[in-house]
Amino acid sequence: MEAIRHAPTLPLDYLGYNSAGIPGYVNYWFGNPIVESKSRTGILKNDFSIINIENWFSLTKDLKLVVNLGANHNLSRRQVFLDANTVEGNNTNGVGSNSTSNTYSYNTNAYLVLDKQFNSIHRLNLTLGGEYNNQIVELLNTTSTGFAIPYFGINNIGSAQTQQIGSYKETRRLQSAFFRANYAFKGKYILNISTRMDGASPFAENKKYGLFPAVAAAWNMGQEDFMKNVKFISNLKIRASYGITGSQAIPPYSSLAQYNNAFYQIGAGNIITTVIYPSTLGNENLSWERTSQYNVGLDVNAWKNRITIILDYYNKRTTDLLQPRVLPSQTGYSTITDNYGTMQNKGLELGVQANIIQSKNVQFATRFNITKNKNILINLGDQKGSAYVSTGGNLQDGVTGILTPGQEVGQFYGYRVTGLAQAKDFQNGQPLYPFPGPISAQFPGTLKFQDLDGNGKIDANDRQILGNSSPDFTFGWTNIFSWKRLAVSMFITGSVGNDVLDLSRFYFNNGIINYYGVVFNQSADWFKNRWTPANPHNDTRYPGIQFNMAVNDITSSMIENGSYMRLKTLTLSYNFPQVKFVKNLALFVTGTNLITITKYKGFDPEVSSFNQSLLQQGIDYGAYPTQKSCTFGLSCNF
Predict the structure, then answer these.
(1) Which residues contact 72 (CB under 8 A, 6 or more apart)?
(2) Confidence (pLDDT) at 394
(3) DSSP letters along 237-252, please?
(4) What DSSP character marks residue 525?
(5) pTM for the structure as a whole
(6) Counting beta carbons within 10 angstroms of the beta carbon of residue 284, is it exposed (0 to 12), middle (13 to 18) or buried (19 or more)?
(7) DSSP-derived 3-state class of residue 158
(8) Which of 85, 253, 467, 498 could pair with 562 as two cysteines, CB 3.0-4.6 Å apart?
(9) How confident is the model at residue 615 (pLDDT cuts 50, 70, 90)?
(10) Residue 501 φ/ψ, nearest 5 degrees
(11) pLDDT tens per residue, range 258-280
(12) pLDDT at 22 over 80
């Protein structure tokens, strides 16, 4: 991102206080991407130790005891050195850090299993057990700044003028008891009942334990007498289930008031004293996030299993969401971890598999699945109205999305662009259209916005929903063809109906050349098609040269159609005949992400700059595109 958006005319080794190369201009240190890559040193080392022991004890013919013991250890060391030519090291004449992390995890579980059949028509399976998990994390970190002699880098960070040392230790425990019962009658009617009680240490003292029951039933209708004459159906099953699960996805000690330390000068002698001060507010009612879900499904196998159809409907409701609640500033705290808000996730999944050709030398099978899903915000607890989502950034640091009870999650929210200002839109230098900000920022070639409330000015009341990152449906299609020992497999995936917020393209096509000394390199596409007096047009993707941001929130000109279809993998393989000592010898070549069909103008429509954040999906903010690759391999067994 840095390498693309800055002026291409600067020398590769340029060092200075702005990206335009303006002499004497002091504002910020320019992070030259070439220099940054050469001036950074980072080493990460990890050592893992894993031990797992499982024992089965036969107590009687039908009763067994299973005991599992496990231990994991991860020793991680990270060393970083940034010299004075980097952004982070410029103000401190270099910065170095050395972090060591030890993570110990212990797990033990034991359970009894009773598996018994009665009169050849009843089958009962019972499981009763308990589990205990304990994880300890120890962290030691040193940070050093001020390197008069930076030559030794990470190998001598003790030579720095300023040293900071910090340490940390946390423990997380989870203990559980569980019971499960499976009953089958003649293989036709199946009932499953289970319950578990989990206790997690991060929760409040009186809220640590949660009870999570589940029940499921299935009817193998295909085995009924009335189905015997339906010859083309080989299997027909109806399934239904309901259950409650819990989430403890919060850091340890989240329910407790936490403290930090600092150093202050106290008294007439200015004696430096260590003090302890509160940093986070405790919550004596912090408890489990709970998700209740019911599923209904249908399995059909037809024509001697040549056709398989699997249909599932699910409806999931999550209550008491674990999330930070914003507090009034007068409390002295910014947020508190709390349970509030309700989400609903429901959808339909359909999978079809067809074994079209099944001969001695030729086989051909195809599988297709399609999924439609909706994420709906039911409420925000006792918070009324909507909440807003923001990503932040150098230019676009305002609102990007909105959360409104009763509506889908993933909605993009901002100003709708209606066109570009033309010369005829001005009279005596005064704009004849509603505009935001100062009048000095209005001139031909700038963006015009929809005045939603019709009050003659553009303000926050004119923001509206501009798109949605959630697709109408997603799909996957697999084809496998084999002829004798040669095989070809192909997997196609896609998404339809979703929008992408292309902030990357916004930086390169917004027409802002110099923003308070920050230069944003513009694309050749923008330069050729930009608005000019000689090339007046109304294409909002190519505004004229801009000298300021009209609005800080996103606009509709940043939203693009994110639908795509992609050849995800294509594999050609050959299986050799078996020889004396070598089995399953195969030679293969696999191509990944070979072809993508999309209208999206960015690098990659399958984008996620903010990982798996539910509130920031479908945002392209310098995301590295999925790479194309080709892999050659040889596999065999001895």
Answers:
(1) 48, 49, 50, 51, 103, 104, 105
(2) 55
(3) EEEEEEEEEEE--S-T
(4) H
(5) 0.87
(6) exposed
(7) helix
(8) 498
(9) confident
(10) -90, 105
(11) 999 888 887 777 788 888 999 99
(12) no
